[in-house]
Amino acid sequence: MASSDKQNRPKARLAKGFRDVDANEIRGLKRMLRIIEEVYENYGFEPVEQPFIEYTEALGKFLPDQDRPNEGVFSFQDDDEQWLSLRYDLTAPLARYVAENQQFLPTPFRSYRQGWVFRNEKPGPGRYRQFMQFDADTVGSASPAADAEVCMMAADTMEALGIPRGQYVMKVNNRKILDGVMIGTEIPLEKRLTVLRAIDKFDRLGINGVKALLGEGRKDESGDFAKGAELNNLQIERVLSLIITAHSSAKQITEGKYLPEEFKTEKDADWHLIDEMKSSFYNFEITMEGLRELEEIHKLTRASGYGSDRIRFDPSVVRGLEYYTGPVFECELLMEAKDEKGNLVRFGSVGGGGRYDDLVARFTGQSVPATGFSMGVSRLYSALKLLGKTEDKETTAPVVVLVMDKERQGDYQKMVQQLRAANIRAEMYVGTSGMKAQMKYADKRGSPLVVIQGGDEKARGEVTLKDLALGAQLASGVESREEYASQRLAQVSVPEADLVSEVKKMLARK
Amino acid sequence: MASSDKQNRPKARLAKGFRDVDANEIRGLKRMLRIIEEVYENYGFEPVEQPFIEYTEALGKFLPDQDRPNEGVFSFQDDDEQWLSLRYDLTAPLARYVAENQQFLPTPFRSYRQGWVFRNEKPGPGRYRQFMQFDADTVGSASPAADAEVCMMAADTMEALGIPRGQYVMKVNNRKILDGVMIGTEIPLEKRLTVLRAIDKFDRLGINGVKALLGEGRKDESGDFAKGAELNNLQIERVLSLIITAHSSAKQITEGKYLPEEFKTEKDADWHLIDEMKSSFYNFEITMEGLRELEEIHKLTRASGYGSDRIRFDPSVVRGLEYYTGPVFECELLMEAKDEKGNLVRFGSVGGGGRYDDLVARFTGQSVPATGFSMGVSRLYSALKLLGKTEDKETTAPVVVLVMDKERQGDYQKMVQQLRAANIRAEMYVGTSGMKAQMKYADKRGSPLVVIQGGDEKARGEVTLKDLALGAQLASGVESREEYASQRLAQVSVPEADLVSEVKKMLARK
Q1: B167 — contact with chain A (CB < 8 Å)?
Q2: Same structural domain, B365 and B324
């Protein structure tokens, strides 16, 4: 099968936008997932998982960049011509699951799931087409108590992962605030998505860019013209005033400047904003509903002792996904850390979510209110890694038993099995190279020690144990004055019968 | 967004051949994966994972049923017209990974990985298009020691999972036995795959069916004609004699009938077969090489104390995947169990593997010998489930705090947070229904107990704890004579300050 025909050889390369995951990251992710899981279980959520592939129509089209031809999703046709897609999040498949199995599920249905999702997007630095999410959802409850719980759970998760209070914040907003203004100013249904997308571009385009996109449209740097929502002046004014309020308040809150006198603690400043907005937008019914829901969330989280240092109203949170209908959440890491190049980076969002009351109704026609939160596991891992919180201290590299005599592999293998039976990670060198290459191999694996038994040792009924770390240290001359004594320390011969106990002793010294 | 337009509603249904995974299975799988992982780590393997999507040409075409139009793989075209595929196993992506990163890896490179793989096949009962595998591979060693280790590791894994010795067996064969006969009888390279496939159909078609497929071809039940390998009579005879030897010996070994006198224990009967085959096929060079490798595996596994009750030569093992070049393995569960309908089922294969010396060379042109084993996690789980070995005894359903007064949700939420802080799974009812529905919800969740605080209790500074299991038992009249006393047992009022300690006590009684 090995073809010498060089032209026909495939290239060994990762597909564009994908990556391999190494041992450190796998171990770190596993630890993280276990911690998140413990918190979610503690909150009474149950695991349920959906497959990676669903009918395209079942997933729907809710991604922010659905203007691209393939709408951000990997899709393919089945034998029977039906379109299938790889999941782009864990929420759309859950909605299908609940709609299909509702009669068997408790109401509300509280579940969590974790797994890889896929986006058919242009990859960039740190931006992959496969990434991991960890979701928790309460389906079948319209109560803000369900939203409040999601927020507290996200906050608890951050602390369980080792992120100190004050270094993260769960920001809460409500889509209804904007919806109310759009309904109140009679912006027609079909234009609302364009408006939402325009607002979502505020960070990148600034107020004038958004204004253009709410009006006639806008020519971008490449000269392409993006058609606008064509709102009238009154509509544009109201939407812009909302954005400006939102962004300036959010900025003030973040910078700690928003401190009205009548509030006792800085922590409540953000919630005071709700009162202010109530007086500005009192004639927009849905907006008022959204603000009341936020008050309820505030009340419940405060009752459990979660202040605005952990859960905070932030009117600038929008969330890109189209299916949100009420409260939306974003979990942001506030601390800065140095990246590999020594630059200060602020992590930003590591997860988000919100209420999606219409996702199940897409299938059944009957409203099933739902809310949930999705942790961006891959992003969160990068953050924890930069903070030095992913180090694996539990796993030791294996002890390597060298093969000094190929005819005696059976004996060496037996030693290895003895070590393994004593729960010591161990392996016989299974390659075909000589002593030097075997030592190099053990070094590259990071082995703490190697076991050697040549003909002489065999004759004496002994094995030699060589401490690799200490050996390397000695070889570098650090302790050259006591060379003789320390060489003995780095290498010791013991009776073969004591192999396991002597290896244990040597490992315990590390 | 909720459309009342019934025609446009998507159907809520799983895609064909896919399935949802429930809480019990997720917990059971997690436990299984952890155990497998511990064994593999103990053997010195390191985790490394490749993405779900690779370039189609990088994965290659090695599935047994590649005659189907899409060749068993889910594929789709990228924006730049390159073809991408979902991985159909974990071995092909590993080969790409090693070829791409060889200079950074130790030699041999010993790694493990676990994850979902996808086959674009016709689904059937118990046959899904997404299933989980757990692989371990040693890349960069041609030594039978690497193969022997894989076999011992698979055996250890079975026992770690709770399958008793004698109830599983790791069967070993060598592709070279057949290759040698094909080369020796001058069967041309391009016909060898057809021959392999014909042999693989022995169980289904019998000896005459295979004979036809080795010759002119064969008409199946539907009348379709499958073209044969068109071998000459001598070639057919030699191949058939090998199959007959293989299958009859395998049958005898399985039934314990193969007991040559010169061997002391029944356990070694299978390996005696190797000697017999050596005298039958002494003029086929590659066959002899294959037999010698098997002897080496035998020697090494025996040296570590693994008898033929655990690792056994079985010449009928072929393995469907095309990329194997030497020893092949199959792990079979031997015990029978009753399925849901009460029928006795024998589990059969729960994993397999073998040596694939040419997979990396596909990319680099340089031979990189490799061997590995793939555990069929989903199949293994089904087997363990039927054996009652997947039960989760660790997880308790959550305590539910009822909402007796909507205005007091903050108080109830606080109780829940106190329970959670004491590591008791707990939740406040977050739905919007009344008392009766709340009790029904707690029942459906399997809650051990509910916490109730109405106006009266609040006034007394108390909470009521109701034991749901005991309550149900009492309600069914089992202990009706001591009704009064037992009602007190099922339901108790305690000071609010003692909530956590009293709940703990009640849970401890279970």
Answers
A1: no
A2: yes
Q: How many CA atoms lie within 13 A of A223 on its CB side?
A: 0
Q: Would you say A170 and A311 are in contact if contact means Cβ atoms under 8 Å apart?
A: yes
Residue B508: CB atoms within 10 A of its CB come to: 7
Domain range for A91 is 23-187+231-386
Q: Are residues B238 and B354 in the same domain?
A: yes
**Residue B283 falls within a domain, yes or no?**
yes
Tell me how many domains chain A contains. Answer: 2
| Chain A residues inside the 8 Å CB shell of B414 | 303-305
Q: By percentage, how much of chain B surpasses pLDDT 90?
A: 61
Domain closes at, from B331, B354, B386: B386
Can you give the pLDDT at residue A254? Answer: 60
Answer for the pair B137, B97: CB distance below 8 angstroms, yes or no.
Answer: no
pLDDT score of B391 more than 80: no
B422 touches chain A (CB under 8 A): no
Chain A: closest CA distance from residue B247 (Å): 27
Q: Are residues A325 and A381 in the same domain?
A: yes
Whether the CB of A91 is below 8 Å from some CB of chain B: the reply is no
> CA of B490 to nearest chain A CA: how many angstroms apart?
22
- Contact residues, chain A, for B398 at CB < 8 Å: 43-44
Cβ–Cβ gap A420/B42 under 8 Å: yes
ipTM comes to 0.88
Q: Quick check: is A394 in a domain?
A: no
**Interface touch A141/B431, C-beta < 8 Å:** yes
Q: Cα distance from A483 to chain B (closest Cα, Å)?
A: 30
Rounded distance between C-alpha atoms, residue B329 and residue B318, angstroms: 9
- Does any CB of chain B come closer than 8 Å to the CB of residue A121? no
Chain A with chain B: Cβ pairs closer than 8 A: 316
- The reply to whether B5 falls in a domain is no
pTM for the structure as a whole: 0.88
- Interchain pair B426, A42: CB under 8 A: yes
Concatenate the DSSP letters of all residues of A224-291 into one string: PEEE-----HHHHHHHHHHHHHHHHHHHHHHTT----TT-SSGGGHHHHHHHHHHHHSTT-HHHHHHH
Looking at the fold, whether B112 and B254 belong to one and the same domain comes out as: yes
Question: In the structure, what pLDDT confidence band is assigned to residue A262 with cuts at 50, 70 and 90?
Answer: very low
Domain match, B309 and B415 both: no
- Nearest Cα neighbor of A186 from A153, A234, A135 is A234
Percentage of chain A exceeding pLDDT 70: 89
Distances (CA, A) of A244 to A187, A205, A238, A315, B205: 19, 14, 10, 10, 76
Domain holding A128: CATH number?
A: 3.30.930.10
Are A483 and A343 part of one and the same domain?
Answer: no
pLDDT at A189: 86
Contact A50, A93 (CB under 8 A): yes
- pLDDT band for position B487 (50/70/90)? low
> Taking a C-beta distance cutoff of 8 angstroms, is the pair A328, A361 a contact?
no
- Decide if A216 is inside a domain: no
Question: Are B309 and B242 found together in one domain?
Answer: yes
| DSSP 8-state symbol, B6 | G
CATH (domain of A440)? 3.40.50.800
State whether B242 and B368 are in the same domain: yes
- Single out the residue of A120, A116, A115 nearest to residue A73, CA to CA: A120
Is the confidence at residue B508, as pLDDT, over 60? yes
At A460-497, the pLDDT tens digits run: 999 999 998 877 776 665 555 555 555 566 889 999 99
Share of chain A above pLDDT 90, in %: 61
Look at residues A279, A278, A318, A284 and name the one whose alpha carbon lies nearest to residue A185.
A284
Closest approach of B426 to chain A, Cα-based (Å): 5
Average pLDDT over residues A446-451: 94
Nearest CA in chain A to B59: A10
Q: Where is the domain boundary, B353, B386, B419?
A: B386
**Cross-chain Cβ contact A417/B305 below 8 Å:** yes
